[in-house]
Structure formats: C-alpha cells, structure tokens
Amino acid sequence: MKHKNLKPFSNNFLWGASTSAYQVEGAWNEDGKGPSVMDMREEFPEGTTDFKVASDHYHHYKEDVSLMAEMGFKAYRFSIAWTRIIPNGTGEVNSKGIEFYNNLINELIKYNIEPIVTMYHFDLPHVLQEKGGWSNRETIEAFVEYAKVLLNSYGDRVKYWLTINEQNMMIMHGKALGILDSNLEEVDCELYQQNHHMLVAQAKVIDLCHQMLPAALIGPAPNIAYVYPATSKPEDVLAAQNFNAIRNWLYLDAAIYGRYNATAWSFLEEKGYVPTIVDGDMDILQKANPDFIAFNYYATKTVEASVEDGNEKIGTGDQEIVIGEKGVYKGHSNPHLPTNDFGWQIDPVGFRATLREVYERYQLPIIITENGLGAIDKVEEDGSINDTYRINYYKQHLEQMQLAITDGVDVFGYCPWSAIDLISTHSGAKKRYGFIFVDREEFNLKELRRIPKQSFYWYKDVIASNGESLDY
Ligand code: BG6
Fold first, then answer.
1. How far apart are CA 432 and CA 412, in angstroms?
2. Of all atoms in ligand 1, which is nearest to the CA of residue 424?
C-alpha cells in the first residue's frame, strides 16, 4: 500500500539498542558469579573466542552508558545474568550481583534512559543444566524464584520486562547457539518438552510480575520472521503456513492466547514430539496476559514443500538459516534478497510484512528488541570506522517500520542489535553489530577501547529528529 503521508513516530518512542549479558559483560567468574551454560561451553567454531571477557562491559559500564547517553538513547535493553544473581540457579542470592545491576540501572536513570530488562538470554545456570536443564520441571520454579528476586530488587525502577529471549531459536537452533545439551536423547522430542516447560515458566512469571508490580509491563521476546512460500505453488504455500505456525505463531499463540495452534500441534503429533502437559498447565498459560510483544527481526524466511518422509532434519543452519523438516517444509534461498557477509539474507520490506502480521494477529503494542547487521568493521588509519553498510541497513528498516506504523501497527520502540560490539553467538568477536566499536580481536584483548562508529553519529541524528532525519 502506498501512503501519501507517513505517520510520525510517537513523541515518547523508545529509541535505543540491545545487548545480552554473556555476550557483553565478561567477568564471567567475578564477584561471586556462578557459571552459566555459556561459560561452560566447550566447543567453539574454529578461530572464535569464548565469552569470558567479551566486551568487559562489567568494568566499563559507566563509560558505555555515557556513550549511549551521547547518542541520545531513550532506552537500553540488556539482559541480567541469572548466575550473577543466583549463582547456583536456586538458593542463595549474590549481593554483589544485585549491586552490579543496581548500579547499571541507576546509571541509566541518571541519563533518563529507560531500562528494558530481559530476564533470561540463553545463559541458563550450569548447575541447573546438570540437573536436566529445561527438561527438568523443577527449572520452572527456579525461574519463578529468580524472577521474583529481580522484580523485588529492581521493580521500583524497571517498568519494562522481557521474559525469555528467543525461546523459539533455543528450541530450533540450540546446537548453533551452543546451548544444546549433548547428552539429550531423542533430541527433538525432548526439546518440545523443554519448550512446554519454558512456556509454563514464562506464563507464571508474567502473572507474578502483574501481581507484584501492577504498573510494570511485561512481554515475551521471540525471534519472529514472516515465512514466504518459494512460489505460488499451493504445496509451497502450505509449507510456508507450516513453518509460520511452527517457528513463529507457536510461541506467540502460547504466550498471548494460552494455546498451541492447530498446525503446530498436528506437527508435534505427526513427529511424535507431543509434550507431557500436567493438569493445570493450560490454565497457567491462559491466565498470563502479556502487555506487549517484543520481537527480534533479522530477515524473513522462505520455504518450499518437502515431499520426503522421516524425522531427520533437512540441511544445517543457524537461527537465520532454515533447517527443513521432512514432509513439512524445506528451506529455500530467496533469490530476491541480498545476503550479508555471513550468509544471512536482508529483507527490509519483510520487516513491514512481519510487523503487520504480528499486529493483526495479536493486537498488542510492539517493541523491536533486535534487528541489525553483523559485519567485519575496519578501523581506518585516521581512527574512523565507516560502517555505511550498517547505516544503509538501518535506514531501510526504519523506513519500512514507519510504513508499518502508517499501516496502523502500534510500534512503541526500536532497540536494534547491538548498542556496542559484543561476541556473536557463533561467529566470535569479528562479527560486529555495535554503534560503538570495541577494540579487541578474537584472542588479543588489546585495551578494549571504545570508538564511536559512523553509525553512532547517524543514529544520534535519527534519535534527535525522532526518526525524521534518516539520511547521512
Ligand atoms: C539473536 C540473539 O539470535 O541474534 C543474539 O538473540 C545474537 O544473542 C543475535 O547475537 C545475532 O546472532 P549472531 O549469531 O550473529 O550473534
């Protein structure tokens, strides 16, 4: 649809950016922090660093927040490391961990930056993983106990809460993310049991948040990407419906409507992945009412029909590269879309399509909590970093987001990935996302100096003009 006039971004639009604890903080075993599954990860793709020092944000947070303030951030989305707060997953609370996030939140508030807190971003406590992780139903209560500590400690200053980052990618791409327990037998069946436990845990925490903090707002934070059929062949359209239902709507339907959608459920039945649902679970799901939807968007997905039988996956992939399911859908590379240096497709128009679809389906306000371009940035001889490719990426996505707003979608914030350079989930330090360069290499930490990139100055203008000035 063409519009004669574009609707402006709202006056209190939450411009900001995101990070996650294990990718940015470092200090993995300092001040009483316990190990998470990310700290204990043993296998890394060749030539890529672990997460132990990352961007050392733990020791640089004041400098980092002051740079965010210089950009004019209205919000900063970060995650809390469960093992900094409760080192063993349950039980004793670590006062030094509580203190760190108190300091971070106070620093943000000093600059009028709204803290947006993700409770859990891939870094399950290692002690809980040893006890079965999300396969163990007791992890539900552990998450509720942890969430209660967060709501108690920070609820006086934090209004926006996100439950679980990209639960759908943990289930579909746990291996690529480095969080799949290698001891799991009948992996997929077990993963959908874990998924169910996470859905219950999330619903309990949403309800708890509403009881404890009536003025707070809380929502889920999956990775949502609209799925296109490869062609207009009816079988391809069905495949796209299948993948939309399994990848996207399963997670949002459960969080918002408290039910499994019919297509996803029939997929679970067909494959033999139906989870054990204990009496009362569906009531818990239905009782929880998120206040908004946060979602991460990188690019749409495209699939074609799969006529094969069996339960094995088709191909290999990561959170942005589709792994097919025999008889259900098969990944297809969209010939109309360019790719980034790491093989991920780029689809700004698909961003508008995804926003429209999510809003029409759920009618809840939306905040974008990730979107961004992973690239290999270069420091020029004069010290500048000219990441015009990143600016172009953002510009195109912001244009499409404004079109979606004009289409009637209620978007109240944009926090792309990432505020500062951090360690990618599986491509190490070289795959950079930040507005702020962190001067380190894979295995040479150098001085971890912070250098604003060209995109830093561009985004500063975008925010100052409330999204009116997108050119550079
Ligand atoms: C999302 C995650 O899947 O994508 C982030 O929430 C991640 O943790 C981001 O870093 C980009 O992915 P990658 O693999 O390039 O780091």
1. 26
2. 16
